[in-house]
């Protein structure tokens, strides 16, 4: 018996490489998470930046709570089984009326994870639709081999290297993942996806949580991850500590260590030493 998803949803994910939408919390709860993020930003006097947009669950207790959210993890368990690590989290924040976009890509390109049993839970803190630049996917492309990508490092591209697929993408087949606040989409690491700028008058905030079963390996470096359910009999990753207090000394140290490793893996072959601002 699946824990959260229907058998049809699981079959659709296997066939299409994604499933959307899944309601995982109320709109009011999503608003609470947004307020937690924005309370920090108000104190800092600027939007969440650079390295702190990545592995954010090691810095803030509310983000840690989200990666352990029972409904999110239940849905993920239905797809990858009961022993689950959170490999990373990435905020995709598009400010109102901003040119930031995401080129067509496969997540598998630079991650170094094998095999490709990797699921992203993309949780909407705000509505994500055609006007605000929601994620678009090309169904069924997760079955394809890894496609060649080129690094553009384009200023407005929200991806680490501004990487984009070097061959033609059949955009006519693209499907938008329309989400209300408190809903999530689920997608496979090899699914071709991208998104356009936010043309709305509000921020568009998505929190992408990357989950792997414990048998997955990181082939580039010795990496770390957070065990969120079950047990880890494989030991391919060092386990990360959960933050007890937002941004305290041990949380900052754990985050710096984990992000340092990830930057090494994702920017391998470049001179970058941090995520872009
Ligand atoms: Ni992606």
Offer a concise description of the structure.
Helix content is 25%, strand content 25%. The protein is α+β, with helices and mostly antiparallel strands and 277 residues long.
Name of the CATH first level: Mainly Beta
Largest sheet: 7 strands, mixed
**Which cofactors or ions or other ligands sit in this model?**
nickel (II) ion
Shape: globular
CATH structural architecture: Sandwich
- In CATH terms, the superfamily is q2cbj1_9rhob like domain
Mean pLDDT: 96
Number of domains: 1
Element string (H = helix, E = strand): HEHHHEEHEEEEEEEEEEEEH
End-to-end Cα distance: 44 Å
Number of strands: 15
Keywords:
alpha+beta, single chain, 277 residues, binds nickel (II) ion, Jelly Rolls, 7-stranded mixed sheet, 4-stranded antiparallel sheet, 15 strands, globular
Compile the SSE list and pairings:
Layout: H1 7-16, E1 18-23, H2 27-44, H3 61-67, H4 70-80, E2 84-94, E3 102-105, H5 108-111, E4 113-114, E5 119-124, E6 135-137, E7 149-151, E8 163-165, E9 175-176, E10 183-188, E11 193-195, E12 204-213, E13 217-218, E14 224-229, E15 238-239, H6 249-266
Parallel strand pairs: 14-15
Antiparallel strand pairs: 1-10, 2-12, 2-14, 3-11, 4-13, 5-10, 5-12, 6-9, 6-11, 7-8
The protein binds nickel (II) ion.
Q: How would you portray this structure in words?
A:
The protein has 277 residues and is α+β, with helices and mostly antiparallel strands. It has a single domain (7-266), classed as q2cbj1_9rhob like domain (Jelly Rolls, Sandwich), CATH 2.60.120.620. The chain contains six helices and 15 strands. It has helices at 7-16, 27-44, 61-67, 70-80, 108-111, 249-266, and strands at residues 18-23, 84-94, 102-105, 113-114, 119-124, 135-137, 149-151, 163-165, 175-176, 183-188, 193-195, 204-213, 217-218, 224-229, 238-239. The strands form four sheets. Strands 1-10-5-12-2-14-15 form a seven-stranded mixed beta sheet. Strands 3-11-6-9 form a four-stranded antiparallel beta sheet, with no helix packed on it. The mean pLDDT is 96. It binds nickel (II) ion. Residues 105, 107, 193 line the site of nickel (II) ion.
């Amino acid at each position: 018996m699946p824990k959260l998803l229907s058998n049809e949803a699981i079959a659709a994910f296997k066939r299409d490489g994604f499933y959307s939408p899944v309601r995982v919390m109320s709109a009011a709860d999503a608003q609470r998470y947004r307020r937690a993020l924005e309370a920090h930003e108000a104190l800092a006097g600027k939007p969440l930046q650079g390295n702190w947009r990545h592995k954010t669950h090691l810095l803030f207790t509310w983000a840690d709570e989200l990666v352990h959210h029972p409904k999110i993890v239940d849905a993920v368990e239905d797809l990858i089984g009961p022993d689950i690590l959170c490999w990373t989290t990435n905020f995709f924040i598009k400010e109102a009326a901003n040119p930031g976009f995401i080129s067509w890509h496969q997540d598998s390109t630079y991650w170094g994870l094998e095999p490709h049993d990797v699921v992203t839970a993309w949780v909407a803190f705000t509505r994500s639709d055609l006007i605000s630049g929601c994620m678009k996917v090309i169904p069924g492309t997760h079955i394809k081999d890894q496609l060649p990508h080129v690094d553009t490092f384009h200023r407005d591209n929200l991806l680490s290297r501004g990487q984009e697929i070097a061959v033609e993408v059949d955009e006519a087949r693209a499907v938008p993942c329309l989400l209300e606040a408190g809903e999530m989409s689920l997608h496979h690491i090899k699914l071709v996806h991208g998104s356009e700028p936010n043309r709305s008058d509000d921020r568009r905030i998505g929190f992408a949580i990357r989950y792997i079963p414990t048998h997955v390996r990181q082939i580039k470096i010795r990496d770390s991850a957070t065990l969120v359910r079950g047990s880890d009999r494989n030991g391919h990753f060092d386990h990360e500590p959960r933050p007890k207090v937002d941004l305290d000394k041990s949380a900052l140290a754990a985050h710096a260590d984990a992000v340092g490793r990830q930057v090494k893996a994702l920017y391998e072959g470049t001179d970058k030493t941090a995520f872009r601002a």
